[in-house]
Amino acid sequence: MKLLPSIRRELTLLSRSIYFYSEIAVAVICLVVLLFVMPEHFDARATEYAFIDLPREQAEAMEEALFADAGPAEGVTLKNRGHEIPARLYTTDMKYVYVVDNRASLSALCEDTGHIGTLLHEPGADPAYEYFLQGNETARYKEYVTLLLSSDFNELLDAADKQEVRALEENPRKLADRQSVLPLMLSVNCVLMGILVTAGYIVEDKKTKVIKALRVTPSRMGVYLTAKMSAVTLTSLAVGLIITAPVMGGGANYFLLCLIIVCGSFFTVSIGALLASFFEDIGKAFTAVFAILVVLMIPGILSMIAGLNAPWVKVIPSYYIVESVKESLLDRDAGYVLLCCAGLAAGGLILMPLSARRYKAAGIGVGG
Question: CA dihedral defined by 319, 323, 329, 333, rounded to 10 degrees?
Answer without folding.
Answer: -150
